[in-house]
Amino acid sequence: MGVPLDSREAQAEEVVERLQEEYPDSTISLRYSTRLELLVAVVLSAQCTDERVNQVTADLFETYRTPADYANATEEELADAIYGITFHNNKGGYLQGIGEKIVEEHDGEVPDTMSALTDLPGVGRKTANVVLQHGHDVVEGIVVDTHVQRLSRRLGLTEEERPEAIERDLLPLVPEAHWQEFTHLLIDHGRAVCDARNPDCSACVLEDVCPSSKLDSDVDLASGEAW
């Protein structure tokens, strides 16, 4: 079992340094060319793989180019256009509502504040953080997706379970200059090595500083649960 460093701050710093070396080109994997496309892609990515989202949006973005295009479509039309995305019916409604609100309240422009973004249908803090970071170059927090949630707990950086609470724990631990990068590093590592069901601890560059290593223990100390 790995031995954590003497503080969570030191643990976070070590995690960032090692993962930077392991994934030097780590960045967002969703494909987009405008802020609107980014917003739509992130909304669609909830509980869906980025790979699948990229497949669906390749055609979607050819048809729906402006907020007005989404606003003028029916929920059913949009649901059909994103068929194959998880919860496509609900998300079709979100896209129609997003288009309407952007047209009516933001002069057709994707807003650039946390409060305005989270006021859009289907947009929570995670989605808003992504849009701010990659669409507006504004870094207000750390995006906590399922990979960040899982790895942060396994690495002993938090015991919280809800994304908002996890983000609050991470913000003082991770230097602000690395807030955006931290998310992508953990996503890459979660996909490549530290997956949900069968983490490959023997291939993990963090194994010796991870309190949840399986090499000498079958218990996840970060969550208190057996693997």
Automatic annotation (TrEMBL):
Keywords: 4Fe-4S, DNA damage, DNA repair, DNA-binding, Endonuclease, Glycosidase, Hydrolase, Iron, Iron-sulfur, Lyase, Metal-binding, Nuclease. It is an enzyme of class 4 (lyase). GO terms for molecular function: 4 iron, 4 sulfur cluster binding; class I DNA-(apurinic or apyrimidinic site) endonuclease activity; DNA binding; G/T mismatch-specific thymine-DNA glycosylase activity; metal ion binding. Its EC number is 4.2.99.18. It comes from the Archaea. Its cofactor is [4Fe-4S] cluster. SMART domains: ENDO3c. SUPFAM superfamilies: DNA-glycosylase. CDD domains: ENDO3c. It catalyses: 2'-deoxyribonucleotide-(2'-deoxyribose 5'-phosphate)-2'-deoxyribonucleotide-DNA = a 3'-end 2'-deoxyribonucleotide-(2,3-dehydro-2,3-deoxyribose 5'-phosphate)-DNA + a 5'-end 5'-phospho-2'-deoxyribonucleoside-DNA + H(+); Hydrolyzes mismatched double-stranded DNA and polynucleotides, releasing free thymine. Binds 1 [4Fe-4S] cluster. Pfam families: HHH, HhH-GPD. Coiled coil: none annotated. Residues 44-192 form the HhH-GPD domain. [4Fe-4S] cluster binds at residues 194, 201, 204, 210. InterPro entries: DNA_glycosylase, HhH-GPD_domain, HhH_base_excis_C, HhH_motif, Nth. One of its GO terms (biological process) is DNA repair. Belongs to the Nth/MutY family. DNA repair enzyme that has both DNA N-glycosylase activity and AP-lyase activity. The DNA N-glycosylase activity releases various damaged pyrimidines from DNA by cleaving the N-glycosidic bond, leaving an AP (apurinic/apyrimidinic) site. The AP-lyase activity cleaves the phosphodiester bond 3' to the AP site by a beta-elimination, leaving a 3'-terminal unsaturated sugar and a product with a terminal 5'-phosphate. This is Endonuclease III. It comes from Halomarina rubra.
